[in-house]
Design goal:
The complex is a heterodimer of chains A (321) and B (319).
Chain A lengths: L9 H17 L2 H28 L9 H4 L4 H13 L4 H6 L2 H5 L5 H35 L8 H26 L2 H26 L14 E4 L17 E4 L5 H10 L4 E8 L7 E9 H29 L5
Antiparallel strand pairs in A: 1-2, 1-3, 3-4
Chain B lengths: L2 E12 L2 E12 L3 E5 L6 H8 L7 E6 L2 E2 L5 H4 L2 E4 L11 H11 L4 H15 L14 H13 L5 E5 L7 H16 L3 E6 L2 H7 L2 E6 L2 E7 H7 L4 E7 L4 H9 L3 E7 L2 E6 L6 H10 L4 E7 L3 H16 L6
Parallel strand pairs in B: 3-8, 3-9, 6-7, 7-8
Antiparallel strand pairs in B: 1-2, 1-4, 4-5, 9-10, 11-13, 11-14, 12-13
Helix pairs in contact in B: 4-5, 5-6
The chains are: A alpha+beta (321), B alpha/beta (319).
C-alpha cells in the first residue's frame, strides 16, 4: 500500500471536492425537473408573442433583438436553480451523515466549502448555457436573424451572478440550520415575500427604491429613447425600455448598457383610478451606469456576506450525531 | 515510546451532560488498542474529538503529538477513520467514492489504480464496486467504511464499532480484516462494546464508563490487576476425603467443592499453584484426569469495573 505523509496540494484537494459534488449535482433528479420546467418557460416565452398576435389578429413582426432582450430564465428560474443546486449541498451532508467521512479526510473545511460552491456554479453554468442556446436558436427560428448574439455570454454572466445571491442565502440558512427543509422553506418564503409582497407594497407606496437593495427584481423604471415592444399590446405604460434595478437584472442591464451607454432611467409611482388606466407620476431619474454599478455592488455584498456566513457555519460546525 | 493518541483531562459536554469527563488516554504506537465501554459510555464522543468532528470543552487531545483541536488536515492525513455505522453518498459508486477519497489523500492516478482493486479485494467488495452505494447492504457499507479508512495506509486507524449491525459471519470477517491490518504495522484504535472482539483482536485496552477511563493497560495486566477468585476445575480417577482435606490445607485455597469425581477449587491468588495442587492430589493417592484453570476473563473484569463505577457515581451513560 501507499502511505502518504504530505498533504496533496490545494488544487488537487479542491478538484476532488468539486468532483464529489458535481457527481452529486448531475445525478439529482430535482435538477432535471427544474431544467424541464425552465425549458417549458422559455418555450412559452418564445411562443407567447405568436399566440398574442393570433389572438389580436395582427401579423407577427420579425424581431432581431428578441434573444438579447428576452426575459430569459427569469426571476423564478434563478431562484429555482439556486434552490436545487445548493439546498442540500451542506445541510444534506449533515442530515444523511455523509459529512462525517468527508470532514475527516485531509481536506480543510474551507476547501470543502469552496469546492461545493464551485461545483454548484459549474452545474449552473452548464444548465444556463443549454437554456440560452435554446432561447437564441428559438428566437432565430421564430423571429428571424438575431442581432448582438455575441452579447449572450454577458447575459450568461449576469444570470449566474444573479443566481449566486440566492445560492449564498440558501447555503447560509442550510449551513446554520443543518436542515435542507428549513433552507428551502426560508428561501421560498423570502423569494415570495420579496417578489410578490415587496413589489406590490413598494409600487403603491412610491418607495420602490427599497427593492433595489433587496434580492430580487428591484424597482422598475423606463429608459426613454430606447424602443421596446410592450408585452401586452397598447397598455398605458411610460415609453421606453423597461429597466429593473435589482440583483436579478444584471444580465439585461449589462447588455442595455453596452448598447446604450448613456441611457437614463426614469422611475414612476403607479396610481390606480376607478374605471381607468393607471396613472404614472414621475419620481426621479438615474443613469443606467449608476443603476448597474449599484446592482453589482449590492449583489456582491449579498454573495460575500451570506457566503461568509455559510463558510463560517461549516467551519465552526460540530458533528455530534 | 511514541504515543499515537494522547488525551489530557479531555472533557466534552452536551449542555448539562458530561459525555467525556477529564479523560486521560495513552495509546502507544504500533499497538492494537481496544476502547471498551457500554453503549453511551463516551467512546464515540472521544473519537469524534480525536478526528476533529467535535471540539473539546476542556483538556487536550493529540495525535502523534499534534493537537487535534481546530481544522487540522495535516493531522487527519495520518488517520484512517471508520465511523460507527458509516454513511456514504448514495449517488456515488463504491469505486468512485474510493477514487475521490484517494484524490483527497493526494494519491496519484497510478497509486489509485494499484490501490483500489487491492482494497476492494481485501474487504470483499470486488465485483460490486460499480454499483451505487445506495444499493449496498449495511454490511457492504461497513466494508466500504473499512476500505476508505485504509486507503492511505494511515499510521493510525480508528475504528468505531466496526462490527455494529453485522451478522455473525460479517463480524468474524471484520475481525479477520482488523487482524490483517495489524500485520501491516499500523496503530489500531478499536472502539467496541463487544468484549470478545476486543479480547480477540487487541493487545491493550482502555475501559471507559460514563466518560471516565476506569482502567488502561495490556489485556493481561488488566485481568491481573483486578484481584478476584480463580477456580481450578479438576477431574480425578478416585476422590477421597483425605485428598479434599489436604487440598484445603494449602495456603492459597479458600474453598473446595466436590461433585462426583470432580473438584472445584477456589484460589485466592493470581499465581500459578497448579504444581502444588497436582502434588497434593498425587500424594493423597489420586490421579488427575484433567485440570482446567478458569481465570477472570476480560468480560469478568469489565462487568466488575462497570458495576463498581455505577455504584460509586450513579447517573446515566452517554455517547
Amino acid at each position: 500500500m501507499t502511505r502518504k505523509t504530505t498533504r496533496p496540494n490545494w488544487i488537487t484537494s479542491f478538484l476532488a471536492v468539486v468532483r464529489y459534488e458535481l457527481l452529486w449535482n448531475i445525478r439529482k433528479k430535482k435538477l432535471y425537473g427544474v431544467i424541464i420546467v425552465a425549458l417549458a418557460l422559455v418555450t412559452l416565452q418564445l411562443v407567447l408573442r405568436i399566440i398574442l398576435s393570433n389572438v389580436a389578429n395582427q401579423p407577427l413582426k420579425a424581431d432581431p433583438d428578441f434573444a438579447i432582450t428576452g426575459i430569459g430564465i427569469g426571476d423564478m428560474g434563478f431562484f429555482l436553480f439556486a434552490l436545487v443546486t445548493v439546498m442540500n449541498s451542506i445541510s444534506g451532508e449533515f442530515e444523511s451523515g455523509t459529512i462525517v467521512p468527508l470532514l475527516t479526510k485531509p481536506v480543510s473545511r474551507t476547501t470543502v466549502f469552496l469546492g461545493k460552491f464551485f461545483a454548484a456554479s459549474v452545474t449552473l453554468l452548464g444548465t444556463y448555457v443549454v437554456l440560452l442556446v435554446y432561447l437564441a436558436a428559438g428566437s432565430a427560428a421564430l423571429y428571424g436573424p438575431q442581432n448582438n448574439l455575441h452579447l449572450l455570454p454577458i447575459v450568461l454572466f449576469g444570470n449566474i451572478v444573479s443566481t449566486f445571491v440566492w445560492m449564498a442565502i440558501i447555503l447560509a440558512v442550510g449551513a446554520l440550520s443543518k436542515s435542507s427543509m428549513l433552507a428551502a422553506l426560508v428561501g421560498v418564503g423570502l423569494w415570495l415575500g420579496l417578489t410578490i409582497v415587496g413589489q406590490i407594497v413598494a409600487a403603491f407606496s412610491g418607495q420602490a427604491w427599497v427593492l433595489t437593495y433587496l434580492p430580487g427584481t428591484g424597482a422598475s423604471g423606463y429608459a426613454k429613447g430606447i424602443d421596446s415592444t410592450p408585452p401586452f399590446g397598447n397598455m398605458s405604460l411610460p415609453s421606453g425600455l423597461q429597466v429593473a434595478t435589482g440583483t436579478f437584472s444584471i444580465g439585461p442591464n449589462m447588455v442595455t448598457y453596452i448598447l446604450h451607454p448613456s441611457a437614463e432611467v426614469t422611475f414612476y409611482k403607479m396610481e390606480f383610478i376607478p374605471r381607468g388606466m393607471p396613472i404614472y407620476t414621475e419620481l426621479y431619474t438615474e443613469t443606467l451606469s449608476f443603476i448597474l454599478t449599484r446592482a453589482l455592488v449590492v449583489t456582491a455584498v449579498y454573495i460575500l456576506v451570506f457566503s461568509f456566513i455559510a463558510w463560517y457555519a461549516l467551519r465552526r460546525a460540530q458533528v455530534a450525531e | 515510546m511514541t504515543l499515537a493518541i494522547e488525551t489530557v483531562n479531555l472533557t466534552k459536554r452536551y449542555g448539562r451532560l458530561t459525555a467525556v469527563d477529564k479523560l486521560n488516554l495513552n495509546v502507544t504506537a504500533n499497538t492494537v488498542h481496544g476502547f471498551l465501554g457500554p453503549n453511551g459510555a463516551g467512546k464515540t464522543t472521544t473519537i469524534k474529538v480525536l478526528v476533529g468532528l467535535l471540539k473539546p470543552d476542556e483538556g487536550e487531545a493529540r495525535i502523534f503529538g499534534e493537537d487535534v483541536s481546530g481544522d487540522k488536515p495535516d493531522v487527519r492525513l495520518r488517520i484512517g477513520y471508520m465511523p460507527e455505522l458509516p454513511k456514504f453518498p448514495k449517488h456515488l459508486k463504491g469505486s468512485e467514492l474510493l477514487d475521490i477519497y484517494g484524490r483527497m489523500y493526494g494519491l496519484s492516478q497510478q497509486q489509485r489504480r494499484d490501490q483500489l482493486p487491492k482494497l476492494l479485494e481485501l474487504v470483499g467488495l470486488k465485483g460490486r464496486e460499480k454499483d451505487l452505494i445506495g444499493k449496498y447492504s449495511k454490511g457492504m457499507q461497513q466494508r466500504l467504511g473499512v476500505a476508505q479508512a485504509l486507503l492511505n495506509e494511515p499510521e493510525l486507524v480508528i475504528l468505531d464499532e466496526p462490527s455494529l449491525g453485522l451478522d455473525p459471519i460479517g463480524m468474524v470477517e471484520v475481525r479477520e480484516l482488523i487482524q490483517g491490518v495489524v500485520k501491516e504495522g499500523m496503530t489500531v484504535f478499536l472502539s467496541s462494546h463487544l468484549l470478545f472482539e476486543v479480547q480477540q483482536v487487541c493487545s491493550h485496552v482502555t475501559i471507559i464508563n460514563k466518560g471516565v477511563a476506569l482502567v488502561s493497560d495490556t489485556i493481561e495486566n488488566v485481568s491481573h490487576k483486578i484481584s478476584g477468585p480463580t477456580t481450578l476445575q479438576i477431574e480425578v480417577t478416585k476422590l477421597t476425603k483425605t485428598m479434599v482435606e489436604n487440598l484445603k490445607k494449602l495456603p492459597s485455597v479458600t474453598d473446595v467443592k466436590t461433585e462426583g469425581n470432580k473438584l472445584n477449587i477456589t484460589l485466592e491468588t493470581q499465581e500459578d499453584v497448579r504444581p502444588q495442587v497436582s502434588e497434593t492430589i498425587t500424594n493423597s493417592g489420586g490421579t488427575i484426569v484433567s485440570m482446567n484453570l478458569v481465570g477472570q476473563s476480560l468480560e469478568d473484569v469489565f462487568v466488575q469495573l462497570v458495576s463498581k463505577a455505577g455504584e460509586e457515581t450513579g447517573g446515566e451513560n452517554r455517547d
